[in-house]
């Protein structure tokens, strides 16, 4: 029996190394299950392990591989065919078409300067104009959709609160009045990923300032990460009241400004450590993925399953005729609920509006 | 009922016209033997719900079903007080001149005023099969709550005390995987991913469930279903759909699946207009 325990524990360890979440508790479950099966039958052992150590369909091909390697391949035939094929990295070939767009926003003659600035691409602004846009960003008030929580609070209207009505009635000896209750609400969480890689350099600062406005308006329901070559949480830095100080702190925290983008790997890291359950996930990136687009696609699928909504903010979306052609963008698109522009103050305002009514 | 091995369970399920493979049978066997919930994941129509129904029939136990949806809460899943009857009782007591609050309270929170919802009902009914259907549709708060109930099969009702199952119900939790279910809940359960059946198994299922079906027709339908599942459809047909489809064909007196009949009955297999036009437009149906 001891030998069995040792074998199974080592097998679970192999699985963990292969990326299956076969933790201690699951291993204990496996040992319990084996009490009821025939440990000499490789079929029984196969199913005992699969039923207790796996938790998602993604685990199954890994499980089959490990089982075959570990127990000598008798069950290799059961392996599910993996649907992920190696997709060619398209970013290099498809880059470049979005940049050439002329500034076409024709401002009406009567519009104020601020109104014109609202629609200008932040990448094309002069220093002074940019400073003005940033001031306007700092004043952006970001509402947030509120979701119903499971808690109730007393209210004058709403559904009847039988518990309190009956208690009241008992206390006063008469059903004096009906009490009501309704669900309390809480703001829906937002998780924002800001791409700070080289190709996003003209937009990263404005996006982070937008992130600052988001954090400031819902400090407990907003999380911000910078992505590039690594995932860096920057929410704490963005909590500073003053946007200048906050941005300064953020820039110190981010080690990988203007590098490449490995969004797939970073999302994978995010998803294995944190959760976007029920939140609105916002990814601000141009989708010029350096990593494997297939990996990005798989992580986006996971994210989409967890999150309430997935919004992709692409600065180039603001231009007429924009087509999401980069490899990363194409891999991610099937899992994105909204693809929105992110190049101007007006675009940020619309995004904020969308987060308020997602 | 004593079921000594997964093989025996395969046989018993077969008697109730449910053809299970080794994996599913092992999962169900362990769920019965160890009193652990069975978490079944897989695309719609692969037979997750059907398994719960068949287990109930096989164990001669009532099937208690909790259909999940967003916003499902404890009062709808566990129990609720029959507020209207409680108030009537208070009124009647008042008319009779009862003023003893302690006594009134005792009377009002009596078991007869309690409405058992599926989870409480399953814990009180022995034996029973509890089907928690489409858990992926409920919100995550509900999962946490379900986890608590499934951990010790105990429900505490503040006014009444604790209700505990002497033998836990057989629990089948299903998910269509429209979102990720929390790991803690899955860890409590045996996890099984249900695939569409293999070609041979599907033929066997059609013949088993529809005695009027000829072998030729079953083979043709199963082959067509296999092809449809490989096509890029919004909702590929599950076993439930191939059964419906075959039944529709049988109703029309079909002995074989010819293209005209297939096109006429396709609506039984495919549930999206895009899919139907995709299949008809791309000639995915059998030819002559």
Topology:
The complex is a heterodimer of chains A (358) and B (288).
Chain A: H1 2-17, H2 24-34, H3 42-53, H4 59-71, H5 91-94, H6 113-119, H7 127-138, E1 146-155, E2 159-160, H8 162-172, E3 180-187, E4 190-195, H9 201-217, E5 222-227, E6 232-233, H10 235-238, H11 243-253, H12 263-273, E7 280-284, H13 293-306, E8 309-314, H14 327-332, E9 338-341, H15 345-356
Helix pairs in contact in A: 1-2, 2-3, 12-13
Chain B: H1 6-15, H2 22-34, E1 38-41, H3 48-59, E2 63-67, H4 74-77, E3 79-81, H5 83-95, H6 101-108, E4 114-116, H7 118-124, E5 129-133, H8 140-152, E6 154-157, E7 161-164, E8 170-175, H9 183-188, E9 190-193, H10 199-209, H11 215-230, H12 239-251, H13 259-265, H14 273-281
Parallel strand pairs in B: 1-8, 1-9, 2-5, 5-8
Antiparallel strand pairs in B: 3-4, 6-7
Helix pairs in contact in B: 1-2, 10-11, 10-12
Mean pLDDT of chain A: 82
State the strand order across the main sheet of chain B: 2-5-8-1-9
Q: Assign a percent range to the helix content of chain A.
A: 40-55%
> How many β strands of chain B by DSSP?
9
Counting H and I runs of at least 4 residues, what is the number of helices of chain A? Answer: 15
Mean of pLDDT of chain B: 90
Outline of chain A, from the CA principal axes? Answer: flat
Q: How many DSSP helices of chain B?
A: 14
Protein structure class of chain B? alpha/beta
Poorly predicted regions of chain B are: none
| Multimer state | heterodimer
Strand content of chain A: 5-15%
Q: Could you estimate the helical fraction of the residues of chain B in percent?
A: 40-55%
Taken in chain order, the helices and strands of chain B follow as HHEHEHEHHEHEHEEEHEHHHHH
Spatially, the strands of the biggest sheet of chain A line up as: 6-5-4-7-8-9
The rounded distance between the terminal residues' Cα atoms of chain A is 55 Å
Uncertain runs of chain A are 74-111
Main beta sheet of chain A? 6 strands, mixed
InterPro entries (chain A): UCP010256, Uncharacterised_CoxE, vWFA_dom_sf
Pfam families (chain A): VWA_CoxE (PF05762)
Pfam families (chain B): AAA_5
InterPro entries (chain B): AAA+_ATPase (IPR003593), ATPase_dyneun-rel_AAA (IPR011704), CbbQ/NirQ/NorQ/GpvN (IPR050764), P-loop_NTPase (IPR027417)
């Amino acid at each position: 029996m001891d030998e069995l325990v040792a074998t199974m524990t080592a097998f679970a360890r192999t699985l963990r190394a292969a990326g299956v979440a076969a933790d201690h508790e699951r291993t204990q479950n496996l040992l319990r299950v084996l009490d009821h099966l025939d440990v000499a039958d490789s079929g029984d052992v196969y199913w005992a392990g699969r039923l207790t150590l796996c938790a998602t369909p993604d685990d199954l091909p890994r499980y089959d591989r490990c089982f075959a390697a570990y127990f000598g391949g008798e069950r290799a035939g059961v392996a599910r065919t993996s649907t992920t094929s190696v997709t060619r990295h398209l970013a290099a070939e498809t880059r470049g078409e979005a940049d050439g767009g002329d500034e076409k926003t024709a401002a009406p003659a009567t519009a104020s300067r601020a109104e014109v600035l609202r629609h200008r691409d932040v990448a094309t602004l002069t220093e002074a104009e940019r400073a003005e846009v940033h001031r306007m960003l700092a004043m952006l008030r970001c509402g947030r959709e509120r979701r119903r929580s499971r808690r109730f609070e007393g209210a004058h209207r709403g559904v009847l609160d039988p518990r309190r009505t009956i208690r009241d009635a008992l206390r006063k000896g008469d059903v004096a009045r009906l009490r009501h209750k309704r669900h309390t609400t809480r703001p829906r969480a937002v998780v924002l990923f800001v791409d700070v890689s080289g190709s996003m350099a003209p937009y990263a600062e404005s996006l982070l300032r937008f992130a600052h406005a988001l954090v400031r308006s819902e400090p407990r329901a907003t999380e911000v990460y910078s992505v590039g070559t690594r995932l860096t949480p920057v929410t704490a830095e963005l909590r500073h009241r003053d946007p200048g100080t906050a941005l300064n702190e953020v820039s110190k925290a981010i080690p990988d400004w203007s590098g490449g983008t490995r969004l797939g790997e970073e999302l994978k890291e995010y998803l294995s450590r944190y959760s976007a359950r029920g939140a609105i996930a916002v990814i601000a990136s141009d989708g010029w993925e350096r990593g494997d687009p297939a990996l990005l696609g798989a992580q986006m699928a996971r994210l989409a399953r967890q999150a309430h909504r997935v919004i992709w903010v692409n600065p180039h979306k603001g231009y007429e005729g924009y087509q999401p052609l980069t490899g990363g963008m194409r891999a991610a698109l099937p899992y994105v609920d909204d693809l929105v522009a992110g190049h101007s103050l007006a675009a940020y305002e619309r995004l904020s509006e969308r987060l308020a009514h997602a | 009922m004593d079921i000594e091995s997964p093989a025996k369970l395969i046989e018993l399920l077969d008697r109730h016209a449910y053809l299970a493979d080794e994996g599913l049978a092992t999962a169900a066997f362990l769920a019965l033997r160890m009193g652990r919930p069975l978490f079944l994941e897989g695309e719609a129509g692969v037979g997750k719900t059907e398994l719960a129904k068949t287990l109930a029939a096989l164990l001669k136990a009532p099937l208690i079903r909790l259909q999940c949806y967003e916003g499902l809460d404890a009062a709808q899943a566990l129990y609720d007080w029959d507020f209207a009857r409680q108030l009537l009782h208070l009124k009647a007591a008042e008319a009779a001149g009862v003023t003893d609050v302690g006594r009134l309270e005792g009377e009002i929170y009596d078991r007869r005023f309690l409405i058992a919802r599926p989870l409480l009902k399953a814990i009180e009914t022995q034996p029973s099969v509890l089907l928690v259907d489409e858990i992926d549709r409920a919100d995550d708060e509900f999962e946490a709550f379900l986890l608590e109930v499934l951990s010790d099969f105990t429900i505490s009702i503040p006014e009444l005390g604790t209700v505990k199952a002497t033998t836990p119900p057989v629990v089948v939790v299903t998910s269509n995987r429209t979102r990720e279910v929390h790991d803690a809940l899955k860890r409590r359960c045996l996890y099984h991913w249900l695939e569409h059946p293999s070609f041979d198994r599907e033929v066997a299922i059609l013949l088993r469930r529809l005695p009027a079906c000829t072998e030729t027709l079953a083979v043709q339908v199963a082959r067509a279903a296999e092809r449809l599942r490989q096509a890029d459809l919004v909702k590929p047909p599950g076993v439930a759909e191939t059964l419906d489809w075959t039944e529709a064909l049988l109703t029309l007196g079909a002995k074989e699946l010819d293209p005209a009949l297939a096109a006429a009955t396709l609506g039984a297999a495919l549930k999206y207009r895009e899919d139907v036009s995709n299949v008809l437009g791309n000639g995915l149906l059998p030819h002559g």
